[in-house]
User: Which sequence fits this backbone?
């Protein structure tokens, strides 16, 4: 069974990675690329409570809850890609099992309470520590861009050496037609997101699965559902009390008598069964049920409750700079801002898939206040919303971005471009440019050129083609801002003026 | 000012005397007489399938074997600039691209590479233009333009464009075939062969619009593709260079082929009823010896297929 468990872990990790890579152009995966997020009960519960709407994409999460009730935290032991990653790190580094401190162990429940209090006040916080969202985010913002960078760098060195260039280009072609973007991608906060993942991995050296034992809110939720668990570890009377099982228990879930188990902690990894010299341990459905304790103290409960309240308060009352808000262009199909924030779990699936298309979306900083930290926002100087693309709307597990068909999307206004006449070449120095007009994708161009007779600085008259934005036609895709050849700040900028949000 | 020595004077006088008879005979015969030996300057095929037009136009010019020898590495550079489908006429017709690839392979090319540095997302353009599929099926090696392939290149004769990041595989090949589509453009009025070469430029190439005619002439003068094949199967009359509305597309079923890029562009202008000398880049191209732009001085073979 242990071998089977390891195979399952590797399979699910590869499956997670496969779905991550499938979230790219062209999007033709039959399996939803956000399946792991859809099957995450923590995200499901928090999104449904926070948005006060039933979201049908979360049916897989319901199945997982139903499975957890008889089977316990089997997800943590067999499926969770972050758990597998941590196991892998431990396997390579041979880190010690380590003992747990009971008090620390309850921390994850307080984390869960803290996060869920926010949800009651429509404040999405679970994303910060939900393992699936966290891993999805880390892959998107830091792991893949880094891999891509190193590969491109190696290719570049090779290319300059002038040997086997054809083979090199073929190899690069293979990578770019399978897993890698053609261009390098750069993301805001990639370093911070990487540091958080690194911190979680480093904790592994304190004890095995430190994160899962003490911090993971999803694990805590699963522990809660496993209260009536039937599939449990049992030790027969023939136990020789050798204690070998405690040496292999990743979760330190075996009590001092070696026979009883902290069932809320057990992730059914089968290590103790495999490594029991007397072969007296088993995991099965038979036998009595036991009520499980969570060891929560009233003080701890109240503290996390109050901490949750305060953080909601801080988030909801944080100052929103209206000047910065002007720069907050949301992806097409986004719901009205409050509802959007209720739903967005920062899994960055939209950002990931956009990085294989127009590279428009980036995680936001504080433009929309503290509450919208890390939500997807269009940064038009870096990328733009591809006219023929609907992919970000198709991969949002919470439907913060509602699915759009291509024809609707093409007509969905996400903003309006403004020309900065003090920077625009034809406007401030009466010379040729018009790149914005050339790039404008609407069939009838939203940027119109008018030939005007102007008096130049030196007093001479000349004709110049000047761009004008036609407000009724502009959809705010931002390609004009991306491609504006003026160095530094663009001479044409997209703002959320005129934006249309999705209303059910 | 350099001093003219007696020796120089005599030498140039002799030179002038030697060429004078030809010049005068030219004037005497007028423009009507054009040499009919060898091959035409331009070949134009009209009214037929894109493949047949391409094949015929090349045949009129003496066949692909004139340009591609056995074992050559050929780069075919179509316009794959936009995320549009073939009907929208923003990218080179995929059937034309495929036929050119086949002609090169038939002529004995060792390898035919097809690529472009697009404006929209590369994968989207390659897929939706139909070029990736058509060209690879015809036997070409279709690749994406990658950052590390650009090398800073000096253009010694450039008036305005003196150095730029150019795509090395496009410069390294034995034969470069420029394969533009003819369409409207807001600044240069039309985009034809010379503007298509922008696809081998990297960096902030939007900047070249600030003096586009000179930049295009400099670039074409440096790159000097062996052959320019202008796709006029469908042309975009308005809202170019990417269009999007079928109302702006006109079917002309025309392919123009020539060795001199400016001559091809000059002919291309007439497809839109524009005088070649009204296009700044064509005019400059003519001055830089990129081809005669006065169509009356050219030997143009036209063939209507159907």
Assistant:
């Amino acid at each position: 069974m242990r071998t089977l468990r390891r195979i399952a872990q590797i399979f699910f990790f590869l499956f997670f990675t496969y779905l991550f890579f499938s979230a790219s152009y062209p999007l033709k995966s039959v399996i939803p690329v956000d399946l792991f997020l859809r099957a995450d009960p923590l995200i499901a519960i928090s999104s449904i409570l926070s948005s006060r709407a039933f979201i049908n994409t979360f049916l897989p999460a319901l199945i997982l809850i139903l499975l957890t009730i008889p089977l316990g935290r089997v997800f943590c032991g067999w499926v969770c890609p972050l758990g597998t990653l941590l196991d892998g790190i431990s396997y390579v580094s041979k880190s010690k099992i380590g003992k747990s401190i009971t008090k620390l162990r309850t921390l994850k429940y307080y984390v869960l309470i803290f996060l869920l209090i926010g949800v009651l006040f429509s404040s999405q916080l679970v994303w910060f520590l939900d393992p699936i969202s966290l891993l999805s985010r880390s892959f998107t913002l830091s792991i893949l861009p880094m891999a891509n960078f190193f590969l491109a760098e190696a290719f570049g060195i090779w290319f300059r050496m002038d040997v086997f260039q054809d083979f090199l280009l073929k190899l690069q072609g293979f990578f770019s037609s399978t897993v890698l973007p053609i261009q390098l991608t750069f993301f805001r906060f990639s370093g911070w997101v990487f540091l958080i993942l690194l911190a979680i991995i480093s904790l592994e050296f304190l004890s095995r699965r430190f994160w899962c034992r003490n911090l993971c809110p999803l694990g805590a939720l699963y522990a809660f559902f496993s209260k009536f668990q039937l599939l449990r570890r049992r030790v027969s009377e023939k136990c020789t009390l050798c204690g070998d099982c405690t040496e292999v228990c990743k979760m330190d879930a075996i009590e001092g008598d070696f026979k009883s188990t902290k069932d809320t902690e057990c992730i059914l990894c089968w290590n103790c069964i495999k490594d029991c010299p007397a072969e007296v341990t088993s995991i099965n459905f038979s036998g009595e049920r036991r009520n499980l304790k969570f060891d929560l103290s009233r003080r701890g409960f109240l503290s996390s409750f109050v901490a949750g309240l305060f953080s909601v308060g801080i988030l909801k009352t944080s100052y929103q700079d209206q000047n910065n808000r002007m720069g907050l262009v949301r992806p097409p199909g986004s719901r009205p801002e409050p509802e959007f924030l209720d739903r967005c779990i920062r899994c960055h699936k939209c950002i990931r898939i956009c990085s294989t298309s127009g590279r428009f979306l980036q995680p936001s900083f504080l433009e929309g206040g503290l509450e919208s930290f890390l939500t997807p926002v269009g940064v038009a100087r870096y990328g733009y919303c591809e006219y023929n693309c609907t992919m970000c709307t198709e991969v949002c597990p919470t439907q913060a971005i509602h699915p759009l068909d291509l024809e609707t999307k093409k007509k969905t206004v996400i903003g309006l471009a403004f020309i900065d006449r003090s920077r625009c070449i034809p406007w401030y120095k009466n010379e040729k440019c018009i790149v914005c007009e050339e790039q404008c994708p609407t069939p009838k161009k939203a940027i119109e050129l008018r030939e005007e007779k102007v008096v130049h600085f030196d007093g001479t008259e000349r004709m110049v083609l000047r761009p004008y934005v036609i407000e009724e036609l502009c959809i705010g895709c931002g390609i004009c801002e991306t491609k504006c050849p003026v160095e530094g700040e663009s001479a044409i900028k997209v703002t959320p003026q005129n934006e249309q949000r999705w209303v059910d | 000012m350099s001093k003219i020595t007696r020796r120089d004077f005599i030498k140039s006088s002799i030179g002038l005397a030697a060429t004078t008879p030809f010049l005068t005979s030219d004037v005497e015969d007028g423009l009507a007489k054009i040499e009919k030996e060898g091959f035409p300057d331009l070949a134009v095929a009209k009214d037929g399938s894109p493949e047949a037009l391409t094949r015929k136009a090349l045949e009129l010019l003496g066949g692909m074997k004139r340009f591609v020898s056995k074992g050559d590495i050929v780069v075919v550079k179509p316009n794959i600039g936009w995320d549009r489908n073939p009907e929208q006429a923003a990218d080179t017709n995929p059937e034309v691209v495929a036929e050119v690839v086949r002609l090169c392979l038939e002529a004995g090319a060792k390898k035919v590479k097809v690529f472009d540095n697009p404006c929209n997302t590369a994968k989207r353009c390659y897929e939706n233009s139909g070029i990736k599929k058509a060209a690879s099926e015809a036997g070409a090696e279709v690749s994406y333009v990658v950052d590390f392939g650009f090398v800073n290149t000096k253009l010694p004769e450039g008036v305005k464009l003196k150095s730029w990041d150019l795509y090395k595989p496009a410069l390294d090949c034995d034969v470069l075939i420029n394969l533009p589509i003819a369409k409207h453009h807001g600044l240069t009025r039309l985009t034809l062969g010379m503007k298509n070469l922008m696809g081998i430029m990297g960096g902030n190439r939007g900047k070249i619009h600030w003096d586009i005619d000179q930049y295009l002439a400099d670039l074409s003068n440096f790159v000097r593709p062996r052959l320019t094949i202008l796709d006029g199967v469908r042309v975009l009359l308005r809202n170019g260079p990417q269009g999007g509305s079928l109302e702006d597309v006109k079917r002309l079923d025309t392919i123009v082929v020539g060795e001199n890029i400016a001559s091809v562009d000059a002919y291309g202008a007439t497809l839109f009823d524009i005088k070649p000398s009204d296009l700044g880049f064509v005019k400059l191209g003519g001055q830089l010896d990129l081809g005669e732009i006065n169509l009356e001085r050219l030997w143009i073979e036209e063939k209507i297929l159907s």
Remarks:
- The domain at 42-304 of chain B is CATH 3.40.50.11440 (Rossmann fold).
- The radius of gyration of chain B is 20 Å.
- The first helix of chain B runs from residue 6 to 29.
- DSSP finds ten helices and twelve strands in chain B.
